[in-house]
């Protein structure tokens, strides 16, 4: 009987996440996963589960890591508008510097329509971003750092909905200047 290999689960999840990110869920085989994780299939099945359960762990790891990074990064900024500006610029930078686009966006188009578990994780990620930006917009309005509109929900949607379009634009055109110009213009519109 073959012996199961013990492994560093967090490192294995990270490696699997990178592979799913590059090849997508459908394009990634269990053989690919075993190779990149450095373990045999029975070790994966016995500790994590099947390919879908592994993917769920990976997308959770990805979204939770992004949430934590955003919290840490933005809590150090006193001005709500400056925090919004930083978030917009950081998003533009991530869009133009992540070689395989955003794992959450790729997953949305590949699986979220048909996979309720994936949809639930991505909705939580989206709700987090919405709440984070809504809080900053509310504070920026209160401090009169934003005066273009008093509709905080619409302004939050206005900001967030740019990111998906920028991802699509960069995937198609690979034009970093175009994304940075759009980010600058969005910030200028909010600062009117």
Automatic annotation (TrEMBL):
GO MF, one example: DNA binding
Signal peptide feature range: none
Record feature DNA-binding region, as residue ranges: 29-48
InterPro entries, per database record: Homeodomain-like_sf (IPR009057), HTH_TetR (IPR001647), Tet_transcr_reg_TetR-rel_C_sf (IPR036271)
Pfam family, one: TetR_N
Keyword terms: DNA-binding, Transcription, Transcription regulation
HTH tetR-type domain boundaries: 6-66
Name of the protein: Transcriptional regulator, TetR family
């Amino acid at each position: 009987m073959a012996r199961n290999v013990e492994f560093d689960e967090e490192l294995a999840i990270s490696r699997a996440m990178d592979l799913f990110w590059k090849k997508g869920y459908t394009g990634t085989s269990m053989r690919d996963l075993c190779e990149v994780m450095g373990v045999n299939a029975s070790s994966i099945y016995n500790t994590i589960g099947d390919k879908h359960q592994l993917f769920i762990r990976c997308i959770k790891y990805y979204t939770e890591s992004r949430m934590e990074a955003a919290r840490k990064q933005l809590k150090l900024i006193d001005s709500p508008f400056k925090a919004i500006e930083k978030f917009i610029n950081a998003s533009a930078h991530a869009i133009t510097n992540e070689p395989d686009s955003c794992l959450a966006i790729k997953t949305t188009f590949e699986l979220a329509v048909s996979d309720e578990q994936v949809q639930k994780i991505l909705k939580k990620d989206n709700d987090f971003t919405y709440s984070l930006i809504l809080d900053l917009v509310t504070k920026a309005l209160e401090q009169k750092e934003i005066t273009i509109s008093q509709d905080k929900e619409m302004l939050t949607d206005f900001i967030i909905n740019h990111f998906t379009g920028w991802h699509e634009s960069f995937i198609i055109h690979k034009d970093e200047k175009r994304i940075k110009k759009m980010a600058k213009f969005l910030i200028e519109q909010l600062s009117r």
